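Figure 2 data, in text form.
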Amino acid sequence: MFNSCRLFETDKIIKLYLVRVNNKSAVININYIMRALFLFTILLFLNSTLFSQKFWLTTYSFPGGYKNSIEKIHDSLILVSTDHSLLVSSDKGINWDIKLYASKINCIYYSKNNRVFLGGSGKIFYSDNLSNWDSLSLPTGHQVLQFAENNSAIYLITGGFNNVQGYVGDGIFKSQDNGLTWQRKNNGLGSILSSQFIKVDKYNRLIVAFADNYISNQSGIYISSDDANSWQRVLVKVDGKGSISSDELRIEDFTNLSITTKDSVVISFDGTAVNVGVRLNLTKHIDDLLSNNFWKQIIVSNTNTWWMDRTIGPLHIAQNGDWYSSIQGTINTGGSLYSQFEGREWVRHQYGLGLDYNGMFNTQKFIEMSNGRIYMIQIGDERVYFTDTSMSTGVDDNYKPVYNVYPNPVNTNEELTLNFDNSKIKTIEIYNSNPQLIHQQMIKENSFKYIFEKSGLYLIRISEGTETYFKKVIVN
């Protein structure tokens, strides 16, 4: 920090005189000094924001205890639930009002008819104004875990786990009168009815994931094309690559069932391939779900035993196409996951993220406002989080849109390429997070290639004539 500095202008070139450097007077052109100060300021700013940025910020307050679900009503209200209460904020998380106390709350859903539903234990709660609530007992004693809706009806799934019976549940329920009455719809599902996720695709088909601690051939993915009147089992197979069986996989437990904006189903689960345990993240286009071909693997952690990957939590596809998810684990293995490349490359983040009541990172759930702000809760964590920027960059890039940097993130010993729209002379400078200049090069070509030897966050400074641009790069 500079306590004071006086620069005196004359009609001639501005100079700063420093006395007695190596027993000589030194004269340094002020343009050089200002250029150095400019770079220092940029790097100091990045060092305090980019490299120390807490990508997850917490809302001003987060009362009520450990959170388990989050929902929004347009851009005006944020709803979060704990095991026994519903909290609502109308001012972006600054203040929260408790709208309901209940014996048990598992999930929140805002319907197309502007009704809020809460899933409880063998019952649901619903309200049209968040002030007056009704409850309805269901013909089941199991937990209501999720709601979904197509053009015909609202659906809910039931499930759970206990130490005596393992995975339990009563399957699917359907309502065609905005939640006033419900009918069980399990034709074709078999006897394993512990449902974990439900989604609706663009054809209004229902897709449901079922768990089974006995790992029988009755668990897995089921699909209905007739509004839950009948169900068909979806085969889950992968190319075993000579390491595991390519026969149908048997699934014990799902951590994710999502549908992307490009109409692909993404599933994450633990299970078996004949007599070998598997943990996989797989994807398949909705048009191919009932075909007999292989699912494609989404790799989260690179390992020689590719069939024992780390499974991700539910996906949130942001408006800009970025993928948000989470991974359960310790401070060394868990956290938030982020991908700019549709799951082909992942970055794990823990910046600003707290732990759940067991001292672990847990499953995260997301909502997004129309301005791109994302809110998140972590199951078993009392905080409510949000972020305004991309999770891979704490500050905005200042670079020409025609400058293409790929891949980003990039792996160590993998070639990074910068493409430019012209062949003008440019100076390329690369700084690490200290920040130290690690590479400098002047080029006239319309592309630049570089290989990083160490992982971390880097800043690339591109100088072209009187213009300067910056690009941040993540190296895994």
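Caption note: Residues 15-53+394-475 form a domain with the Immunoglobulin-like fold (CATH 2.60.40.3080).
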